[in-house]
Specification:
Number of strands: 3
Pfam families: DciA
CATH architecture of one domain: 2-Layer Sandwich
Shape: elongated
Protein name: RNA-binding protein containing Zn ribbon
Oligomer: single chain
Low-confidence stretches: none
Strand content: 15-25%
Order of helices and strands: HHHHEEHHE
């Protein structure tokens, strides 16, 4: 009788690639950073061409999104609709993906 017969960290059943990737992100605690990168890359798609063309830089850190805009009126408009923008991000990427947005 073997002492460690059933110790095998690998799963015996077949796992879809998406689930395996999610488990990998969870195991290495990279899920938040991965989501932040996806949000940054999807900014233009979520906000549209007029806002994307006036966004000079965008980055995310610690669940905060920092957006630098080249237009004062659009910056003011986005500041007034911050909660709506967070809601749009949550619909696409899940609740808690971004907690706050700062417009620069």
């Amino acid at each position: 009788m073997k002492k460690y017969q059933d110790f095998n960290p690998r799963k015996k059943e077949i796992t879809p690639l998406k689930e395996a990737f999610e488990e990998l992100l969870q195991a290495y605690k990279l899920k938040d950073r991965f989501n932040e990168r996806k949000i940054v890359s999807a900014w233009g798609e979520m906000m549209g061409n007029s806002i994307a063309s006036r966004t000079s830089s965008i980055y995310a850190k610690d669940k905060k999104l920092f957006v630098k805009l080249s237009s004062g009126p659009i910056k003011k408009e986005l500041m007034m609709n911050k909660s709506r923008i967070i809601h749009i991000i949550e619909e696409k990427f899940g609740k808690g993906a971004i907690e706050d947005i700062t417009f620069l």
